[in-house]
What we know:
The chain is of the alpha+beta class. The protein is 26% helix and 43% strand.
Amino acid sequence: MQHTLIALVEDKPGVLNRVSSLFRRRGFNIDSLTVGRTDQPGISRMTIVMDSDSAGAERVTSYLYKLVNVIYVDDVTNRPAVNRDLAMMKVSVSASNRTEIIQLVDVFRARIVDVANDSLIIEITGDEDKITGFVEVLRPYGIIEMVRTGIVSMLRGAIAPDSGHAFAMNGNGKMVKVFS
């Protein structure tokens, strides 16, 4: 089963390497990994999707907590969340199929972000199934190139993985939770 973990980490060099090395050393595969800044200065958010049973996900969560620079980890797999992935693909087009491809873009609520005589670059955002379905529909036309960002996840409602917490630097230079 796929598990989605959200980790808040200090935005420092080497943190991503330590996290990915932990997965490698423990024999877990990362299916998707995204990292980005948060609204808290000095804090980045990782969304990690891994294929594991619940016990494996719990072990990884506890291992992550032991890493320096990891502030918070939450397995949001069985909680109400919005998960999104973004893909861009360059598709081969001709005069005879351009209209058909544009109609498919509309049906999937994707966007054309670049137009050339012989190709279109299409951007699509959605859950993993929507993007996979769109790729399969476009494959017969000729996908020249494709890239996907990886999944990002956010809990629904007013809950946040770090609910009720802000972060600040303590006297030892370590990020700590500050209750708000």
